[in-house]
Amino acid sequence: MKTTWMPVYLAVLALTASAPTPIWAQEQDPNPKSPELRLKDEKDAKVSITAKTAANDPQEKSGMPYKEFAIPVEPDKVYTLTREGLHVWQYLLDTNGKILQIGGHNGDRLPPLSWSHYFQVTAKTVVYARIHTGGQVVGAEFTVTLTSRPAPKPEAITLTDGKFARADNLNEADGLYMGSSVQKSYLLTAEKGQQFTAELVDQKRKSAILPLVVVDGAGKELAKSNGAQTKFVAPADGTYRVIVHSGGTGWGERGTRRAPFRHEYSLSIRRE
């Protein structure tokens, strides 16, 4: 019988504690008429749109008017989305309207004139940049710019006697997971039904403080644990992706890098 190989990915993440959602940030389905902000090809690493507030801007359920841009993204790139020109709030949404990143804080009286989101996804998808335009004069201009750079290629995992162990570190040259944290990726080939145990240990604290999450090729979560061993079963023949995530310690909430950055850890995986 012919074997069908399916791409499946494993992610090991140090999850960031999420801040309370500001009252102005509304989870709502994206607008299907949103214009695209698309990087056309590999050589096209930058694209910008200049927009103006309008009296007929669409409104959220709360009545807040907004501009929204659909951004097709791929898993092998690190993206930077920058908005300049207005003191307005903004955030990123997934295709279901779930908030992924927030550009603004409950304690801010006035949103910043410029704001950048840094992100990387685990599967090909579309994210939406929603920018509030309430309180602005009609015809006020702002610019949204999208840039990208190649994400570092994942390293292949080789099991010796069913085991893998690696002391490694996260640094500024590594890619980003969705949010504002540095990541590093590994690839593990497995057969359907094989069972594995993965553990990530902070070298400095000598404890398993980094959560482990298992996702498939579409980014769907299969299993997770919060700072403990993760046991999982390969749902199909394929290649699993292991992402070690810094948990927000590499990049500031406002998209500013904290340098120098280095996070040492050890990763172990064994086949049961």
Can you walk me through this structure?
The structure is a single chain. This protein has 272 residues and is mainly beta. The chain is 0% helix and 44% strand. The protein contains no helices and 18 strands.
Order of helices and strands: EEEEEEEEEEEEEEEEEE
Strand residue content: 35-45%
Identify low-pLDDT runs. 1-21, 249-260
Q: How do the strands line up in the largest sheet?
A: 1-8-3-6
- Number-wise, the strands total 18
Task: Tell me the Rg in angstroms.
Answer: 20 Å
Overall geometry comes to: elongated
Mean pLDDT: 75
Largest sheet: 4 strands, antiparallel
Query: First CA to last CA: what distance?
Result: 26 Å
Count up the helices: 0
Helical content (DSSP H or I, runs of 4+): under 10%
Describe the oligomeric state of these chains in a short phrase.
single chain
* Sheet/helix structural class: mainly beta
